[in-house]
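Continued from yesterday's entry.
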Amino acid sequence: MASALRCESCGMPIPSGKYCEHCVDENGQLQPFEVRFEQMAGWMQRNDSRLNRAEAEQATKDYMRTMPAWKDHPALKN
């Protein structure tokens, strides 16, 4: 059985393509890093209420470094 595809931006399972519906704009293009970072950091904080904003941002950066769409992004170099 073939493994499911995963969004290269956030890791969400997808039926086809590179990115999920949450990571693309109305034209199907990957949203800018800043937009995805804010959305993902907000999700991280909502998902774990123990995290303060700085912790959620650090966890988001750590996660985004593992994703093909962002692994080489300049904002994630440190």
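--- second protein ---
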Amino acid sequence: MDSKVTVHFSGWTASGKLFQTTVMDGQPATMPLGTALPGWREALPLLTPGDKVRVWIPAALAYGTKPPSKRIPAGNLVYEIELLKVD
């Protein structure tokens, strides 16, 4: 969990609304794996750099059904993730 991952990703709500993307921004995200969503912490260790996946993350492994901010999506989420690098 001390690893840092660099990823491109896009995230959608279960209804199909895009809420965040690094792909359109052209800037990948780098984060400690230990701070990623629980659903990401389960999926990312199964990947090798260069892999692209689509994962369905239940609310319990995402932000829950009542996140602390209206800017954070509630419920089940869908992510497309490309693992670029692991440090």
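The mean pLDDT is 96. Residues 6 and 85 are 5 Å apart (CA to CA). Will compare against the first tomorrow.
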